[in-house]
Automatic annotation (TrEMBL):
UniProt source species: Sphaerobolus stellatus (strain SS14)
Residues passing through the membrane, by range: 109-129
Record's keyword terms, sorted: FAD, Flavoprotein, Membrane, Oxidoreductase, Signal, Transmembrane, Transmembrane helix
UniProt domain Glucose-methanol-choline oxidoreductase N-terminal: residue ranges: 149-260
Similarity-based family: Belongs to the GMC oxidoreductase family.
Signal peptide: none
Annotated ranges, domain Glucose-methanol-choline oxidoreductase C-terminal: 416-482
Cofactor(s) this protein requires: FAD
Name this polypeptide is given: GMC oxidoreductase
Source organism superkingdom: Eukaryota
Binding site for FAD: 179
SUPFAM superfamilies listed in its UniProt record: FAD-linked reductases, C-terminal domain, FAD/NAD(P)-binding domain
Gene3D superfamilies listed in its UniProt record: FAD/NAD(P)-binding domain, Glucose Oxidase, domain 3
PANTHER family according to UniProt: GLUCOSE-METHANOL-CHOLINE GMC OXIDOREDUCTASE, GLUCOSE-METHANOL-CHOLINE OXIDOREDUCTASE N-TERMINAL DOMAIN-CONTAINING PROTEIN
């Protein structure tokens, strides 16, 4: 990932607008540019299905890798494994958390939802939901990675879903292409049919017609951008940019959410193996033989906050505000309950921190403190009718003071802090919500069949449809959305 991140050939490298509550910093947010999207460059952490491992019962218990077999599959296109080497730091850290009341829990990363506002999303994703009995998502564990242990290579959407089907005669993959807009024709039932896509390849503009459907999988930042440049979105915003509004859908680009983190770096014993050890050619060779994986651990901690009404912190069209109010009602039930609001990820090495110059001769460990259910809501909207101009990404990080409170409580669990959070906060790269699956009257953009409201054949299939941030990484959910979408499309056809 380190070689791909921030490399403009493989990374869109978006930046937010200046964040008022984060010392006017522009936060960088990586998005994968290439086959496999962001799954080709993420940190490989995998929050769901597990593969068999060869560990003694005592070691497995020490490392918190004893999942409930009834809650997990043992096959599927994505290959998941645990690292062949786990640093002693991991066990020591889990022991410390045990002493502080956060016990080992190998089932602490699970996807489950509840609440009225998620009814449409629940209906859509039902076959992929984990049983409530495994929804124990408070505790500490060793996170599995999306690495094929047989080949020591990344297992991601391009290798798992595309590669086995790339030779099919009904599949054409066009790389180095940039989509400009979707073209529509209005039907007698007042719905708009997506009939073609305009795109640029090698500086030549082309138009590709669709016989059946057009599916947008551009991600949380660019899916709403494509909808808006194509005439679907808030009528006033489109009018200001001289774009004809075909479908007035104010929820497009609203309800933006993301996981955010603040890193804590500590120097550790020089004898410990960390990422810095790889500077030694002999250690690098040894680790390559063992498979090059990241040792990551999560911790989830609750905090007591007041979830105020969103009107004070969210500027959004009235219909979108209706949906956010319902989200707040759900989130109030999470406060002071056994539900995680914060998370710690332990990285066995140095995570880059603004203003900190490491000593190359030292060994480090990093605790990444994150909040996982933000109360702040932002937007992503176009500033030009040209799709090649990046959208204005305005997450409004920390606009609701409760988010800062949660993050500070999470950081203070490991270290005493004050302004540290605002000076160092970074994204976890989990943006969701900008094309939410919710009722249209609540600011929703798509229905349970993934169709954009007001269209008959335009679907959105990416994490922008998730209406409310979840308490784990979104990679697994992205795969589930894609598989469910494939089922829907095949049934329709």
């Amino acid at each position: 990932m380190a070689l791909n991140t921030r490399n403009p050939r493989y990374d869109w490298e978006f930046y937010t607008e200046p964040q008022v509550h984060v010392q006017n910093r522009k936060i960088q947010s990586s998005r994968g540019k290439g086959l496999g999207g962001s799954s080709m460059q993420n940190f490989l952490a995998f929050g769901e299905n597990l593969c068999p491992i060869n560990l003694s019962a005592d070691v497995a218990k020490d490392f918190a890798v004893v999942p409930d077999p009834s809650s997990h599959g043992m096959n599927g296109p994505i290959v998941v494994s645990f690292p062949p080497y786990v640093s002693p730091i991991h066990k020591d850290t889990l022991d410390s958390l045990d002493g502080l009341g956060l016990l080992r829990n190998s089932e602490s990363i699970c996807i489950y939802f509840f609440g009225y506002i998620l009814y449409y999303f629940l209906t859509f994703l039902q076959p992929f939901l984990v049983q409530q009995s495994a929804g124990r998502n408070v505790g500490s564990l060793l996170v599995p990675t999306a690495v094929d242990p047989k080949t020591a290579t990344r297992s991601y959407s391009a290798s798992a879903y595309l590669a086995p089907n790339v030779e099919r005669n009904n599949l054409l993959v066009l790389t180095e292409a940039f989509v400009l807009k979707v073209r529509f024709e209005k039907q007698e039932n007042n719905l708009h049919r997506a009939e073609a896509v305009d795109l640029v390849v090698d500086d030549e503009q082309l138009s590709v017609e669709a016989n059946k459907e057009i599916i947008l999988c551009a991600g949380t930042f660019q899916a709403p951008q494509l909808l808006e440049v194509s005439g679907i979105g808030n009528r006033d915003l489109l009018s200001n940019l001289s774009i004809e509004c075909l479908i007035d859908l104010p929820g497009v680009g609203e309800n933006l959410q993301d996981h955010m983190l603040s890193p804590i770096v500590v120097q550790i014993d020089q004898n410990m193996l960390t990422v810095e050890s790889l500077r030694d050619p002999e250690q690098l060779k040894l680790q390559q033989e063992l498979y090059d994986t990241a040792n990551v651990k999560r911790w989830a901690a609750s905090a007591t906050i007041e979830a105020s009404s969103p009107e004070a912190f969210v500027k959004t069209p009235p219909s979108a505000l209706n949906g956010i109010k319902k989200q707040y009602e759900i989130m109030r039930t999470w406060i002071d309950s056994i539900h995680p609001l914060g998370q710690l990820l332990n990285l066995n090495g140095l995570f880059p921190v603004l203003g900190f110059i490491p000593d190359p001769s030292k060994r480090y460990m990093t605790m990444l403190a994150a909040y996982i259910h933000p109360l702040s809501r932002g937007t992503v909207h176009i500033t030009s009718k040209d799709a090649q101009v990046p959208p204005a990404i305005q997450p409004n990080y920390l606009a609701n003071p409760a988010d800062l409170d949660i993050l500070c409580k999470t950081v203070k669990f490991a270290y005493k802090v004050t302004r540290y959070v605002q000076e160092t906060m970074l994204t976890v790269h989990h943006p969701v919500g900008a094309a939410s699956m919710m009722p249209r009257e609540d600011g929703g953009v798509i229905d349970p069949s993934l169709l954009v409201y007001g269209t008959s054949n335009l679907r959105v299939v990416d994490c922008s449809i998730i209406p409310l941030e979840i308490s784990c990484n979104i990679q697994t959910l992205a795969y589930a959305i894609g598989e469910k979408a494939a089922d829907i499309i095949k049934q329709t056809a």
